[in-house]
Each structure stands twice: as structure tokens, then as C-alpha cells.
């Protein structure tokens, strides 16, 4: 996969656009691994954001809940990911919100993430399906406790746990899975578009979504934001290309209202393919591809409200150096070869967070 990425033809560079949002007026959301990354990006750069939407994801640095889970540090992170941050046996053996909140405060004090005080003005949308068998509802409950412990007012935090959904972002698309399904492409039918609920909670009253898009989905080359030839950045697992939806008025020079970052989950990147012993299984390539950045409803509500939507992309790699076969965002440390005992996947300096921050700067975020 890495060789294919290096050889991929160059796409156009990400463009800059005028944005009128007040500083800190942007937002971010994600599903599953994208939800875990949402929490990490949100804390690392909380000065940039007005709020976040976390669908089936745990608190930032969840895998550090029980660092003594294994005598080998790398194994402890993986075991925490699987058995603490996805399927804990009970609340007591799930993510430790108070401990993780204290870790976040120390990180902010060290300047590795933005000051915690920014969280007092944030608006949070948290969702867990009551039938989710991939990331247990207990984990998302811990995310709620984590943000409350860090000073997000309860009145600004919307927590939804009464929908009998499986592990999925919810849409009104007839083509998507039934509501309680826990299977790819991790998009399920509901009464509406969950993306719209997320943006309305964060940004307030919005215009109804467009029934016909005016703008364009722009493909851009992500490789200028990381270096696939660099020993460190080569473990980023980021794809050659990313995408952004830009309304027509913004393409023609009108200022965008704000930027929203939408982070896909595992197996949802544009070039996801099953890996068999580290080799792409093209004969059984799943048809998930572009659904996250074309059918999840973000573009329609962005179009009618002047938002730009940024869709960064990660891909599956399983090459003996980087174990990420399902194309997940890094929330357990696979991207940091320099600190295997205490990897940096969560700070401003982390490869993936650094790349997304640079994309936001290019687009005009403040």
C-alpha cells in the first residue's frame, strides 16, 4: 500500500478560501476511529473549534486508562484499545474518565495540547447506539464524563443513547444498513441525517439542507501535509488524496461561514481494501469507497449554510511496521515509531493531527 501511495499521480493542491468564522468557530466530528480522533484533534486544538460530534467513540487517550495491562508497553496499549475502550466488561473496567481528564490537564500544562479553558465554550454532541456491539455504550458514557470533568457545561453537551442503532453513522439513505446492524459500511438507515443534528447542535439554527448541491467535491493531494518518504511520516497511514466539499458561492469568492472536519471510521476511506497477509485483496474489494464524503448528508447542510467540509483520509497498512489493516485513524499509537512505550498519537505534534491542522490552516481556519 505504501508503494502504491508513493507512486500515485499528483492531484491538485488544497486551495485557500476566505472564512468569516470568528476564531474558534469551526467544528469536527467523526465515527468510531474517527470519533476517537475527533476527541484527540478537538483537545489538541480546542482554540480552533466551537464544538465536536463524537459518534461511537471514547475519550482522548482512552488506551492509557490502565497502563499496567501488560508488562510490555505496546501490548498494553493494544489491550486497552480492545478490552477497555471498545468492549469493557463493566463500568469499573472501562475508560477511567477522571484519570484521563487529569492526564489531559497535565498535557495542556506542558503545552502539548491547547489550554483546557477553551472547553468551557464548546458544544458537544455524543452518540451511542443501544445495539452497538463494536464500541460499547459504556465507553461513550465515559466520554461524556470526561468532557464534564474538563469543564464543558452540561447544558452544552447533548448525549444520545436511546436509539436502537448498531455501530454506524445514521442516515436517511435507503441503501444503507438496517438500524441495528453492526457491519460495514457502518452507515445505517434512520429518520434523518445524523450529520445535520451534529452541525445544528454545535452551530445553532441552520438553513434547511440543500436538495441539490451547488458546489463541488474537490480532491486534493494530502502528501504535502506529510512525507511518505520520511521514516516517521511513512507510518502515518494517510492516503495520497483527501477531499473537501466547497459550496459554489465560496468557490466564486464569497467567504465561507466555517470549516467542518468530518472523520471517517475504519474501512470507510476512499481506497479501503481488505488485506490478506498484508497484500491488497483486489478481487474482493468492498464497495464502500466514497460513501462517507458523498452520502452522509454533510455536504447538503454545508451547501445551504456556507460551510466547507474537509474529509481527510487514512488507509489500511499491514506491512510489519505499521499494523493498521482496517484503515483506522490512530488512537492507540501505531503511527509513532520513536516512542513505542508511550507513543504520541494525540498531541499537536502527532503525525495525523499535525497534517489535519495544516489542512485547516490552508483552508483559512482561525
**Low-confidence sequence ranges:** none
**How far from one another are the termini?**
34 Å
What profile does the largest beta sheet have?
Answer: 8 strands, mixed
Could you say how many structural domains there are in total?
1
Give, in order, the helices and strands. HEHEHHEHEEEHEEHEEEHHEEEH
Overall average residue pLDDT: 92
Helix residue percentage: 25-40%
Q: What is the structural class? A: alpha/beta
- The total of beta strands comes to 14
Shape: globular
Within the largest sheet, what's the order of strands? 4-3-2-1-9-12-8-7
Verbal overview:
- The chain has 10 helices and 14 strands.
- It is α/β, with parallel strands linked by helices and 366 residues long.
- α2 links the parallel β1 and β2.
- The chain has one domain.
- α4 packs across α5.
- 26% of the residues lie in helices and 16% in strands.
- 53% of the residues are buried.
- It has an 8-stranded mixed β-sheet with strand order 4-3-2-1-9-12-8-7, with helices on both faces.
- The radius of gyration is 19 Å and the shape is globular.
